[in-house]
Amino acid sequence: MTVHSPLGNPALHFELTRLAAATHGVCLASELGAGRLGTKAHSDMITRCRACKIADVCETQLALGVVPEHCPNKQLFEKLAG
Prior knowledge:
Number of helices: 5
Strand content: under 5%
Order of helices and strands: HHHHH
Largest sheet: none
Distance between the termini: 42 Å
Helix content: 55-70%
Radius of gyration: 13 Å
Number of domains: 1
């Protein structure tokens, strides 16, 4: 039997994802509006964030303007930033 850990708070991780993207100079709302980011990809980003077990580290580093190296979305943010 596989035991799954619960995902983190959706509102918190939505905000962490938004802040991490903004740290890369990416506005997710603009990316969605322009069609460069689909709704499924956006949802997947938030779910990956929710599955991360060290959100407290992320919160601290984002407050300093740094996206943690372990961020599961970091490569996508870098790609969107161009």
